[in-house]
Structure formats: C-alpha cells, structure tokens
Amino acid sequence: MSRRSILHPDLPTGHDMSKQFQRRLILASMVGAILYVPLALYLDTLPPWREPDPGVIRPPFKHYGGNAWQYLTLIPGSVSDSNDAQNRSRLELTEDNHPLGPAHSLHVDIAEKGSGRYSYWLSSLIFSTSDNSNPNTNGRVYRVFDSGAKDPFTSLRTAHRPSLLSRLFPSRFNH
Q: What phi, psi does 171 have (nearest 5°)?
C-alpha cells in the first residue's frame, strides 16, 4: 500500500485516477458526437449562405464639390467612360431602388445641379443624390448595376448541393 493511500484512504491512486479520466473522456466524446450529428444534419438543411449584395456601395463617400460625391471604385467587369469613349459605360445607379440619372453627366453639372446626375469616369463614380442631400448621412441605400459587365467570378460559383436530409427525404426537405 502506498504512503498516499495510508494517509488519505478516500483519495484515488494515480492508476485509479487515470482510469476515471479515461472514462470521463470517453463519455464526453460520446455526448459530443450525439449532439454533433443532429446539429450537423439540421445545419445541412438550411439554405446556402448568401453574400451581401455586391452592388451596394457604402459610405464614406468623398465630397467632390457642391452636390457631387465621389466613390472611388473599380466595379468588377464594368467599363467606365473616358476621354476616348465618353458614353460607353452602362453603369446604372439607384437610390433605394429608384433609378438616378441622367448618366454620363458632366462633373460640373453634377456639382451644380445635382438631382441624381452621375458619371462613372475612370474607376470613379461621381454622383449626386435625388434631393442633393449628403449620402453619408441620409440613410439611403445606393446600388450600382452594369448589365454589360462580365462577372469575373462566374467560374468560382457552384450550384447549390442538396443537403443530406433532402437526399434521404426529398419530399420533406427540398428547397
């Protein structure tokens, strides 16, 4: 009998403690597996996560002068106006889903007149709000869309794979 067991007979010895730890570890692993499987099956039935709208442009917008604001951006796949092609951009700008315009406006007109005029010029969007308010503080959502833009991420997108439960029970879990 060890000295420890003589002094404290109610304490387990090192060998007993190791077996107790192993039993607890096995029990914890089994409980974890039991909880993990239903949670994983449930999460697999949820619709795929969607990225936020990539067309939304967010503040801060730089004050360009007068009623004009500037958003420095390269819109993937979109072509901007330039000195060589002053009306080639097909970019459309909306404010709370209402179209703004006219597009291809002169920057001086955007600054002086405002009222939704805009221009996508050399990777810079110069625009005004519909009521000439500050787009950094007016609480409206601004979106850009280019119907002629080629999506540079097409090859990376994959179709949604059906979940395990929808494959096992197609009538109950199809989205």
A: -75, -20
pLDDT in tens, 122-142: 889 999 999 999 999 999 999
pLDDT in tens, 88-108: 889 999 999 999 999 999 999
The count of other CB atoms within 10 Å of the CB of residue 141 is 14
**Distance between CA atoms of residues 104 and 119, nearest Å:** 5
- DSSP structure string for 25-52: HHHHHHHHHHHHHHHHHHHHHSPPP---
What SS3 state is found at 14? helix
Q: How far apart are CA 156 and CA 54, in angstroms?
A: 15
Whole-angstrom Cα distance, residue 89 to residue 147?
A: 10
Are 144 and 127 in contact by the 8 Å Cβ rule? The answer is no
Sign of CA pseudo-dihedral 143, 147, 149, 150: positive
Amino acid at 128: S
